[in-house]
TrEMBL record:
Its EC number is 5.3.1.1. This is Triosephosphate isomerase. Keywords: Cytoplasm, Gluconeogenesis, Glycolysis, Isomerase. It is an enzyme of class 5 (isomerase). It catalyses: D-glyceraldehyde 3-phosphate = dihydroxyacetone phosphate. Substrate binds at residues 9-11, 180, 219. Belongs to the triosephosphate isomerase family. The gene is tpiA.
Amino acid sequence: MKKLLIIGNWKLNNNKKIILDFCKKLNSYLSTINYDHHLKISIAPPILHLETFNLILQQLHNNHISLTAQNIDVNILGSFTGETSISMLQEIENIKYVIVGHSERRIHHNETKELIAKKFKLVKSFKLIPILCIGETKEEKNANKAQKICKEQIDTIIQLVGYQAFDKAIIAYEPIWAIGSNQSASTNYIQYMHQFIRHYISRYDINISKKLIIQYGGSVNKKNALEILSVKDVNGVLIGNSSLDCDQFIDIIKCTK
Ligand code: PEP
């Protein structure tokens, strides 16, 4: 059975009250199913809410749900007003993953490939798992440059971290044109891109490529989750909008059965 990692990225949404209800509902659902180790569930709330989320999970004696940070600063400490560091996040018990290079950070916060590579390296050095988001714009897709763009995004990481960069790391393939559009990529296209990514990593290390978790992200919802999760080289999904409501999120988890 292939391993599946389902992550809800809440971005700048939801509040403390919702977290409590969400955790209770999700936790009680997960405790009713025969939860096995091929399935991992994580939520990326806004950074401010990670601690609250963690406390609630502890109170619920949860051991099914982990936490993901949406971003970190590239500095560990110092005069960087408004930032959050990896060492601060590491103190929160249930945090396991850190998203780096989400297209919204690349676009709205001008994050370069080089900065993203530094963040990726930092996350690994703190023994958390980086989730590298890669993907092309509509224009790049139409110009047949999707693979070239993803290759460049991966190359910058390998140049800084070395050929073993993707050992204990995750790639989320998220075509920018599919994010928040209500129109996911087709399953054929998803397999075409995921196969390319896995094959590209195998040129550096075949064992790492075989174990690599490659998530798909971009308008995943309860209607398309089953077919997307069934795609050969898909090992999970990174979900934005459809993860905000617990019932919808649970419906997507049901598709992993
Ligand atoms: C995302 O932003 O990572 C994402 C996949 O969003 P959505 O599911 O809303 O397309």
